[in-house]
Design brief:
The chain is α+β, with helices and mostly antiparallel strands. The protein is built from 14 helices and 21 strands.
């Protein structure tokens, strides 16, 4: 495979425990990888991102960004751009097999969102992060890690990690980060087979782009069957639609995660004979270029690092699409890992420990949320579906609808705000560092200022929420 490069950083030199010039190889160019690269570059590291695909991967489903993730996007300086690409979904409806509307709910109840939360297509977010980093970060597309050899774990004698790529290229890096998803190749090389860490939650999910023949506009339509759920939606600024299928399975299927032909066959067989618009929706799976199919599962590990290799995002702690927090955890994990590496002066042993201490409580909470939601997505009895449809139909007219909506939001928001976001501004390695301040209008204004040590006061965060990080950073 050919590797395309946007910048050559291979001449960077090691600087002991200083972050300046410290080389970091990041495997994966979806969300976690470019987000980590942005922060590492800001702190003086020299990141390289390697991606198996020949170019940035388009497509994907809509992803929630809320709570801590909104805060991180604001500190990155990309929140305005993310909001400009919001899905702007207005709500959703359930339909029966004849296509008749059973009930409708507004987007905030469907998504459990509060003011300030947002939603964006995964592909749009990945592109925003890539474009913000492409001029400062080396990207190697169309290549992948073949072997890893940890040459030493002592920061005072930094031999680093010798990496051989599929292309035959051999290079040494100070650190290696696996940001390559639930089926992480980096994790397999450094920690062993995926089966040791993956826990199947009893369901599969598939999504792909298709023509918007239902004529949806910023709207989502659901159809529930025993053990199955189908959704079609079209977001703001798009003429096409996304077809999403979820179905229960008693055990994992003997399908490789890259065997799309077998996946498409199984999806068609699983929904064969079902009514509504399903035959028409499934007909578009065959030629969908962005077809996605995978199990709904968790990745559970006792440790996310080994020597100079560390994992972030789904590679370390996949919470599955059922949590709605995979992207949020990827963004916050990238922020915390880079910040702790900078705070530790590049000492990975200290930084990796602090990173896990800060992230693990949130991961545990979100994985528990996923376990519950995975079952809710594939209700297995007709009477249970009927009861849910009754609630959807009557909820907008009930006097206690706000209380029910509040209970739904509370669980989601606890999980979305579970990371202690410390302030790492003082570790930026530029003469003048970007600062993001709240304008009072729900957007962030970007200014520049000379870096100063974190103040021991509680200030207003870039996203408009009370900033919990200043006291924590000062106390440390």
């Amino acid at each position: 495979m050919n590797a395309s490069t946007s910048r050559d950083a291979s001449t960077s030199t090691d600087a002991g425990t200083s972050t300046v010039g410290k080389t970091v190889l990041i495997s994966g160019a979806s969300v976690a990888g470019p987000a980590l690269a942005l922060w590492l570059h800001r702190y003086g590291f020299a990141p390289t991102v390697v991606e198996r695909a020949p170019e940035l991967r388009p497509g994907g489903y809509k992803v929630d960004v809320r709570g801590d993730a909104i805060e991180v996007l604001a500190r990155m300086g990309v929140l305005d751009e993310v909001r400009a690409h919001s899905t702007d979904m207005e709500g959703g409806s359930y339909v029966d097999s004849a296509g008749r509307t059973i009930g409708e709910l507004p987007a905030e109840i469907f998504g459990g969102r509060v003011e300030g939360d947002d939603e964006i297509m995964r592909g749009d977010l990945a592109r925003i992060l890539y474009e913000r980093t492409r001029d400062d970060v080396e990207y190697l597309f169309g290549d992948s890690i073949a072997t890893l050899e940890d040459l030493g774990d002592d920061p005072e004698d930094p031999d680093g990690v010798l990496v051989t790529f599929d292309s035959g290229l051999r290079r040494r890096f100070d650190l290696v980060v696996g940001a390559d998803g639930m089926h992480s190749h980096t994790r397999r090389l450094a920690f062993g087979d995926e089966s040791r860490y993956k826990r199947f939650l009893g369901a599969y999910i598939s999504i792909f782009t298709a023509p918007n023949h239902l004529g949806l506009r910023q709207w989502e339509t659901y159809h529930a069957l025993p053990g199955k759920l189908v959704s079609v939606y079209s977001s703001a600024g798009r003429d096409d639609a996304k077809n999403l299928f979820v179905f229960a399975e008693p055990a994992e299927l003997p399908l490789h995660h890259r065997d799309t032909a077998a996946q498409k066959r199984h999806l068609a067989e699983r929904f064969a004979g079902d009514g509504w618009e399903l035959p028409r929706l499934l007909a578009h799976a065959g030629d969908a270029e962005d077809f996605y199919f995978d199990s709904i599962a968790l990745i559970e590990m006792d440790r996310w690092s080994r020597g100079r290799v560390v994992l972030i995002g789904d590679a370390a702690h996949c919470a599955s699409p059922a949590s709605g927090q995979g992207t949020g955890l990827a963004l916050t994990g990238a922020y915390v890992l880079a910040g702790e590496l900078a705070a530790a002066g590049g000492d990975h042993r200290v930084a990796f420990t602090r990173y896990e201490e800060l992230m693990r409580p949130a991961v545990t909470l979100n994985q528990k949320v996923a376990e519950g939601f995975a079952k809710e997505m594939t209700v297995d009895r007709k009477w249970k579906i009927a009861a849910r449809m009754f609630m959807v139909r009557t909820l907008p007219r009930t006097p206690w609808k706000n209380l029910i909506a509040k209970k739904i939001r509370e669980q989601i928001q606890r999980a979305a705000n579970a990371v202690e976001l410390r302030d790492y501004t003082a570790y930026a390695r530029t003469d003048r560092t970007t600062a993001v301040t709240d304008t009072g209008t729900g957007t962030a204004a970007v200014t520049t200022s000379t870096p100063t040590a974190p103040a021991a006061t509680v200030a207003t965060s870039p996203s408009g929420r009370p900033d919990r990080s200043a006291l924590a950073a000062a106390a440390r």
